Amino acid sequence: MTYYLLRRLVGAVAVLFGVVTGTFVLSHVVPSCPACAVAGLRAGPEQIKAAAHSLGLDRPVWDQYATYISGLVHGDFGTSYASRQPIGPAILTALPATLELVFYSFVVYALLGVGLGLVWAWRGNRFESWIIRLVSMLGTAMPVFWFAMVLQLWLASRVGWFPITGRMQLDPPPTITGFYTVDSLLTGNFAAFGDSAWHLVLPVTALVMWQFAVATRLTERSVIEEMRMPYVRTAIAKGASTRRVLLGHVFRNAINPVLTMLGLQFGWLLGGTVLVEVVFSWPGIGIYMYNALQTFDFPAIMAVTVVVTLGFVVVNLIVDLLYPVIDPRIRAT
Amino acid sequence: MAAPALPARRMSGIDLAGLGRRWGALVLVAVWLLIVLLPGIAAPQDPLALNTSNTLAPPSAHHFFGTDEAGRDLWARCVWGVRYSLGIAVLIVIGAAVIGTVIGGVAGLFRGPIDTVLMRTTDVFLAFPYLILAIAIASAVGPGLTTVVVALTAVWWPGYARMVRGQVLALKELPFVEGARAAGTSTFAILYRHLLPHLLPQLSARISMDVGYAVLALTGLSFLGLGAQPPTPELGAIIADAHSHLLVAWWYTTLPGLFVLAAVLSAMVVSDWLEARNKSRFA
């Protein structure tokens, strides 16, 4: 058990080290001339040299690597090429907006995806299953940003049911957690809560639809597989109700692959949020990354990459650590 | 592993569901091939011709899909755009499959330190959310279609490496591999001549599925401005341009996406057919 936990932890740290090294290579070795981008189009060789010096790009690569790593360990993501401001605080301001969006999407995704996957497995080839299949398939086959734009065009602009862009129309509540929905409830501002929840509907819908098929299909497969086990036949023969067989017996045994999938899907959501944030002008790290892309602001792009990947690795680690809690079979090994 | 076999609808000994699947898949492949190879037939108009007197015109008999902000025919742009999107997606996925098969195959056959190094590298690639990694790579290389190919191949091969390694590990214990080794066949010849034929059915089903996903990823990168540069008609770039005209031109946003949807759904149908074929052949 302790060995299992330790192995997962060491593995996660090793992977993170690889990730950080990878982003360093991408930002310091691959770009042909980052200093030229900073110095501007009209810069001569002297200006480029000066820019390279002020960015520390003229130092040996190993030296730069050491600075980069020690900076990251201390929470310093470096300075943006574009704004000349430290990147860490900028990401920190944008992060709650993204986390709020991803959090709600993830909750809706997990509940709806797994729930409908169960319905699909249970109802077999009937009408409900076909609808679930169809919706899942369409969601997967659409570009997420296009679906977001279609929602924005028809449900927000044409019909006017939802706001077109942004996180909030009213004044945002005072920052406590950074989640507008939570902060507005904590300060008793229900109008603000309604407003922020309203703004969440379309972006969350787009993100949930995107990977919907993965959740429904995997749950269905894994449940169907488990239903062929002899113990299920025994339970049915004993006269247990469908609900008891499905939720009490089958689902508990079928949940491992579903859990792994949910951990991985969190990463997809983190990636997809960049596209959805751009469509809805959602002021999170996705927009921050998008703006950095427009100015070739490598340190900012890589900082977002590291932060997002860190979140992804941590979530998968949590999933790994959850297995023994949920499944006694793993605890034994 | 396999889901319980559904009773096939059989009529006078012919598997109708299987036949429908096969013909559906083949017709779809033929239609897309035609569009990709001969876009001029589906869209006689020039996708690049400007017409400033007819900008943002709604769909009409002359312009099925309407026109964009420069008066270019959107139907033609979509038809030519799908050519880029599908063509590049196929390139990316096949490149990734080749790299992944070689790396996964070598790792599975040699085991030991080579296996460890290759698989830990794969793990690092898989640790990134793939879209974020693709964005990071594309931004470092600089925007353009070549960049997108590099970035997406780089994020796609690890999946294949893992899959192939798993299969090779299972296959290499079988007597025919042992026999080949006893006969003195080199490791690469074993991989190429003896193992590859066993890997191909699964690989092909996955490749056709991934072509659909690659189209989606590709349009995503183009939407962010990392892929095709104007005036190249690429579906993601077209949709990105449409975003600034969202409120005045519904067709500009809505219709090009349907092309992507159709392409990805077709990839799913083909992959479904390949998978069903594998199952009936090897079950």
Question: Topology of this structure?
Answer:
The complex is a heterodimer of chains A (333) and B (283).
Chain A: H1 2-29, H2 34-39, H3 45-55, H4 61-73, H5 87-123, H6 127-141, H7 144-158, H8 180-186, H9 190-210, H10 212-227, H11 230-237, H12 242-280, H13 285-294, H14 298-326, H15 328-332
Chain B: E1 10-11, E2 14-15, H1 16-37, H2 39-42, H3 74-110, H4 112-127, H5 130-141, H6 145-171, H7 175-182, H8 187-223, H9 235-243, H10 250-282
Antiparallel strand pairs in B: 1-2
Helix pairs in contact in B: 1-10, 3-4, 3-6, 3-8, 3-10, 4-6, 5-6, 6-8, 7-8, 8-9, 8-10, 9-10
Overview of this protein structure:
By secondary structure, chain A is mostly helical. Chain A contains 15 helices and no strands. Chain A has helices at 2-29, 34-39, 45-55, 61-73, 87-123, 127-141, 144-158, 180-186, 190-210, 212-227, 230-237, 242-280, 285-294, 298-326, 328-332. In chain A, helix 7 (144-158) packs across helix 12. By secondary structure, chain B is an all-alpha fold. Chain B is 72% helix and 1% strand. Chain B is built from ten helices and two strands; from the N terminus they run ββαααααααααα. In chain B, strands 1-2 form a two-stranded antiparallel sheet. The longest helix of chain B has 37 residues, at 74-110. Chain B is elongated. The chains are: A mainly alpha (333), B mainly alpha (283). At the A-B interface, helix 1, helix 6, helix 7, helix 10 and helix 12 of A face helix 4, helix 5, helix 8, helix 9 and helix 10 of B.
